[in-house]
């Protein structure tokens, strides 16, 4: 592991986590929890398998990641963050917030994974009606599916589909992000191609009620590369 050779906490931190892909590995483990090597690689499109193995070894050596043997029927090695590694969560959150305005730039070749919506859900969504019974929204963003749950004042995200969800929202990842972040209202998002089925009340229950840094500048559907 290369070092900046500087007696500064920022430099020391970057000695450990400043290499390409390292913080994205941390992002995946924060989003997924303990997971298999193949799950990590799936969540990091573009990384070479030998480079992922190298980065995991470096993170283990730094005490940020550890291995555990999953019991049957999985019976495989799982990678998980240590307490020290999980302490990077505020760093990932801060980078995510800082990068929100950059999400206006969407290219056709940009990969997308459903778990990457976990940070926007945590940043922007609120259960505005905590006294109502629990509700859920199935999100289809491109070819990825996740479910957003609102229950007793808490909003959370789980991976996969749920045919019993109260509502289903379908659209491109940029349009979904614009909706979830408050850059587009529900009606405007529908005019730009977003599709909503089921309970609109369940969707409105969690959406931001004020604007934010993304604003209304998400590209119109016809302009998304």
Automatic annotation (TrEMBL):
Residues 8-107 form the HTH hxlR-type domain. The keyword Zinc does not apply. GO terms for molecular function: DNA binding. The keyword Transcription applies. It holds the Pfam family HxlR. Keywords: DNA-binding, Transcription, Transcription regulation. InterPro entries: HTH_HxlR (IPR002577), SCP2_sterol-bd_dom_sf (IPR036527), WH-like_DNA-bd_sf (IPR036388), WH_DNA-bd_sf (IPR036390). This is Transcriptional regulator, HxlR family. It comes from Microbispora rosea. The lineage of its organism: Bacteria, Bacillati, Actinomycetota, Actinomycetes, Streptosporangiales.
């Amino acid at each position: 592991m290369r070092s900046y050779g500087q007696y500064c906490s920022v430099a020391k931190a970057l000695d450990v986590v400043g290499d390409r892909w390292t913080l994205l590995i941390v992002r995946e483990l924060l989003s997924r929890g303990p997971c298999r090597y193949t799950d990590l690689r799936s969540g990091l499109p573009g990384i070479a398998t030998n480079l992922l193995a190298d980065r995991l070894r470096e993170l283990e050596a730094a005490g940020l990641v550890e291995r555990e043997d999953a019991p049957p029927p999985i019976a495989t090695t799982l990678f998980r963050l240590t307490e020290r590694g999980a302490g990077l969560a505020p760093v990932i959150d801060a980078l995510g917030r800082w990068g929100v305005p950059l999400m206006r730039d969407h290219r056709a070749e940009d990969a997308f994974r459903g778990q990457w919506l976990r940070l926007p859900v945590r940043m922007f969504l609120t259960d505005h009606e905590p006294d109502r019974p629990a509700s859920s929204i199935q999100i289809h963003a491109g070819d990825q599916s996740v479910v957003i749950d609102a229950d007793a004042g808490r909003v959370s995200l789980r991976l996969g589909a749920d045919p019993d969800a109260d509502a289903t929202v379908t659209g491109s990842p940029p349009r979904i992000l614009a909706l979830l972040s408050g850059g587009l209202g529900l009606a405007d998002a529908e005019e730009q191609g977003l599709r909503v089925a089921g309970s609109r009340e369940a969707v409105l229950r969690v959406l931001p009620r004020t604007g934010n840094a993304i604003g209304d500048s998400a590209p119109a559907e016809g302009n998304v590369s």
